[in-house]
Specification:
Number of strands: 5
CATH class: Alpha Beta
Distance between the termini: 39 Å
Protein name: Cell division protein ZipA
Keywords: Cell cycle, Cell division
Organism: Priestia veravalensis
Pfam families: AAA_33
Largest sheet: 5 strands, parallel
Length: 163
């Protein structure tokens, strides 16, 4: 029986460092990195102006991404997904990608507090001015309302980091 790839995905508030860590992990594991932000900006350029737009286009993307990732895992290649796993529903979808093809998974939980996240968001605004309209305190407060900490009862293999 051939070895399946492993699926890695992330949970953490906005600004916790999920994208940065996903790039580092993909390089370490020699894994395929898939970024939701990159896919959305390539497929829907200038169409995401609000959180509701993001939700709409993200939902349209998911079936294609799921099948694509399952195909990659099935040939034995590891995949790092820079897609949010910040709610039970999002994590259930990410877990289904691995479980439906019997691949292993790892949820990396970047458990940073609000102050740490806001500091990193401010730094990101300086480094990536094109993100300044979305990377605001107001957006952080809005999306953090939906954040749900992961729990092993969800059937997840969780690796937690506090910094």
């Amino acid at each position: 029986m051939k070895k399946l790839g492993d699926l890695y995905f992330f949970c953490g508030k906005m600004g916790a460092g999920k994208s940065t860590k996903s790039k580092q992990l993909a390089a370490e594991k020699h894994a395929v990195l898939l970024s939701e932000d990159e896919w959305l900006s390539a497929l829907y350029p200038n169409e995401i102006a609000s959180f509701d737009d993001y939700l709409k286009f993200s939902a349209q993307l998911k079936p294609l991404v799921k099948k694509h990732v399952q195909n990659i895992l099935s040939v034995g290649t590891d995949v790092v997904m820079d897609f949010p796993g910040n709610t039970q529903k999002q994590r259930k979808w990410l877990l289904s990608i691995a479980s439906e093809v019997n691949a292993n998974h790892q949820l990396i939980f970047l458990n940073l507090n609000n102050e740490q996240c806001l500091r990193q968001i401010a730094q990101r605004r300086n480094e990536q001015p094109e993100r300044a309209t979305f990377d605001t305190i107001e957006t952080f407060i809005h999306v953090t309302k939906f954040f749900e900490e992961p729990d092993v009862s969800e059937g997840l293999n969780i690796l937690e980091f506090n910094e």
